[in-house]
Amino acid sequence: MAFGPHTWPAVGLALVAAALYVATLAPSVMPSDYAEFQFCAAVLGVPHPTGYPLYIMLGKLFTLLPVGDVAYRVNLSSAVYMAGAVGALYLVSVRLLRLLGYGGVWWSAASGAALFAVAPTVWAMSLVARSYALNALLVGSVLLCLIAWRHVGRPRWFFASCLFIGLSMAHHGTTYLLVPAYGLYLLLAEVERRRRGADRRPWRRLSLGLLSLAAGYSPMLFLVYRFVWGAPYYWGNPSTWKEFFSLITGGPFHDQVLGYGSDLGTQLGRAAFGVGQLWVQYTPVGIALGLVGLWTLLRRRRGEAGLLALMTAGNFGFAMNYSLVGYLYFIPTYLIWGILTSVGAGWLLWRLLSSQRAVPTLGARRLPAAAFSVALLAVLLPLVWLRFPGLDLSGQTQVRDQTLALLRAAPPSAALYLDWEALSVVRFYRLVYGTRTDLALHSGDPADWPKEVYCDLAAGKAVYVGEFAGAQPIAIGRDFVLEPAPLGWRVARVSDSARYAFPPCGTCATCR
User: Fold this and answer.
1) How far is C-alpha 411 from the geometric centre of its chain's CA atoms?
2) Which residues are within 8 A (CB) of 435 and not within 5 positions of it... i.e. 6 or more apart?
3) CB 76 within 8 A of CB 25
4) Is-contact 449 482, C-beta < 8 A?
5) Nearest to 133 by CA among 52, 28, 215, 69
6) pLDDT tens digits for 301-334?
7) What is the pTM assigned to this prediction?
8) How many beta carbons lie within 10 A of that of residue 470, not counting itself?
9) Average model confidence (pLDDT) for the chain?
10) What secondary structure does DSSP assign to 303-343, as a single string?
11) DSSP of 191-214, one letter per residue?
């Protein structure tokens, strides 16, 4: 390993972060996209665009672990990935600090990694089954390999860079916005190598690099395989190649890009929103250190400064304009800011150590490092203490308990009318454990449900309606008498005022 003694501190930081995440990890199934990722990993299905094939295939391996239920195991994968991202951030910071010639590398690099680890959004996405933790790990891995390639020059770092870039592109569509930064940095490294005459056969290395890139991108073949030969679950049920390519390129969500408008006033407002999110993650201390780190790199390591700046521009510009949970897409920016924070801390500690060069005793010269570590702990421990209660999901079993209660209570062949959040949880138990496959599941537009509910009641079916529209489902509550039930209500009968509001639909067996 090129980092020698710094490998073990990286592992130690990753383990501490993993312990924190596991202590607060969601213990079972969660609603909405979380459940979708959980059951897709278990049955090798294809979730919502862009399909996330790498996440699903790795998630399948986690489902084989002998701990907790299947949902917990997939949640655990996020904790492992984000802990790995913390370690990768530390190693990237070490590389940059050594290039800058700063002392106190361990403490400086650890400061940025620790602040990143306990950032609220980062911590929250380490506890549930979502794609963001793996994305952070891959982005950190690409950065680590790219910087090592330029400054160490061993071909294995070049091949690893290409491999991780391919894996990133296969995993998360936002990675394509980082490719220009990667490409320009690789081009810079190539120009420098040509000037030094470092390569006798560069085309062989470049050819192998392309093969590494293709190998990294190969998980996309999983989506093709599932489309051609079928899957237990394939979001959107594509039936043509046009629909397939629309799904894997995020077509159904393209209208969310620049979803807030492109005029200058709107863009300035969105940029302010993004900066505010960064402020919440890193606190004023982290923001100040990050600005110092950016200034330091711009002065002394412009290649790396350009790489990080272009990556931030691509990720930040997309995240601030994406109107569907866009705040979650800032995590790569948070990772980059953690690196800048480490560099800023390194500059500060270097200045402190430089001021002690004339001090005669070794103990006295170590005082600045000791003071720095105390200051770091004084920032971190209160952050963990304050954020822990709001982020801790270890006791969140309500979704699991209510869903299982509904599945136990529902009579045979009952009809469930549920929103996406609850429907995904029921699908989890159906696809993973084969529970209650007799139940009829309905989703779609709740405005269309009253007539369908009426037909089901007329056919003698038990009907349940989920909590999809606040405290009381307006359309259903107006036309039917409801009784409390797990996850929502059981429809008891048609209300007297709406008894004649439903003409025969002419399509179901009851009405024909």
Assistant:
1) 38
2) 407, 429
3) yes
4) no
5) 52
6) 999 999 999 999 999 999 999 988 778 999 999 9
7) 0.91
8) 7
9) 88
10) HHHHHHHHHHHHHHHHHHH-TTTGGGGGHHHHHHHHHHHHH
11) HHHHHHT--SSHHHHHHHHHHHHH
- Give the Å distances, CA to CA, from 385 to 277, 308, 331, 360, 382: 20, 31, 22, 39, 5
Q: How large is the average pLDDT for residues 475-481?
A: 77
Cα–Cα nearest to 137, from 176, 103, 171: 171
At residue 165, what are phi and psi to the nearest 5 degrees? -65, -45
| CA–CA distance, 493 with 171 (Å, rounded to integer) | 48
373, 452 contact by CB (below 8 A):
no
| 96/147 Cα distance (integer angstroms) | 8
Of the two residues 452 and 94, the one the predictor is more confident about is 94
Residues 6 or more apart whose Cβ sits within 8 Å of residue 359:
365
Q: Is the pLDDT of residue 5 over 80?
A: no
Sheet holding 480-485, edge to edge: 440-442, 415-417, 463-466, 488-494, 480-485
- Rounding to the nearest 10 degrees, give the CA dihedral for residues 146, 148, 152, 155: -50
pLDDT, residue 252, reads: 86
| Sequence-ordered list of residues with C-beta below 8 angstroms from that of 51, at least 6 positions apart, any chain | 223, 235, 247, 248
Q: What's the pLDDT tens digit per position in 189-211?
A: 999 998 888 887 888 999 999 99
348 or 469, which is more confident: 348
CA 261 from chain centre, in angstroms, equals 25
CA 463, CA 488: separation in Å to the nearest integer?
A: 11
